[in-house]
């Protein structure tokens, strides 16, 4: 669309459309409604993620020691499930702790809203 000096804009079919400046008076908006509130930190979810991370790490270490033979076992078929459970518990804990760390440091693309909150 092209602007002419007479205050008219030529539309797509050549029709003339008038325009006017927006009045500088109050438009009903206030600045506070566009400001973001400070992020709510999900402390319970971060504590749960820390617990999962620690328990998963311990299970992985114990499973690795059982598998390597540093710890004597009477049933060696139970070492692999310890490792599998350790990995399954470790991964969500590590993932959510990583998000919490990056959100606390202010990295772009990370926020506390990405961590599920258990407050009902």
Automatic annotation (TrEMBL):
Pfam families: TMEM_230_134 (PF05915). Keywords: Cytoplasmic vesicle, Endosome, Golgi apparatus, Membrane, Synapse, Transmembrane, Transmembrane helix. The gene is TMEM230. It is a multi-pass membrane protein. The chain crosses the membrane at residues 45-68, 80-101. This is Transmembrane protein 230. One of its GO terms (biological process) is synaptic vesicle transport. InterPro entries: TMEM230 (IPR044234), TMEM_230/134 (IPR008590). One of its GO terms (cellular component) is autophagosome. Involved in trafficking and recycling of synaptic vesicles. It is found in: Cytoplasmic vesicle, Autophagosome; Cytoplasmic vesicle, Secretory vesicle, Synaptic vesicle; Early endosome; Golgi apparatus, trans-Golgi network. Belongs to the TMEM134/TMEM230 family. The lineage of its organism: Eukaryota, Metazoa, Chordata, Craniata, Vertebrata.
């Amino acid at each position: 669309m092209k602007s002419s000096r007479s205050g008219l804009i030529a539309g797509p079919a050549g029709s003339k459309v008038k325009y006017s400046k927006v009045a500088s008076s109050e438009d009903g908006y206030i600045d506070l409604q566009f400001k973001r509130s400070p992020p709510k930190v999900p402390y319970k979810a971060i504590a749960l993620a820390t617990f999962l991370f620690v328990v998963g790490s311990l299970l992985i270490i114990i499973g690795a020691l059982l598998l390597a033979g540093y710890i004597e076992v009477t049933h060696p078929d139970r070492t692999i499930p310890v490792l599998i459970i350790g990995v399954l518990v470790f991964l969500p804990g590590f993932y959510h702790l990583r998000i919490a760390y990056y959100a606390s440091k202010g990295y772009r693309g990370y926020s506390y809203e990405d961590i599920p909150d258990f407050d009902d």
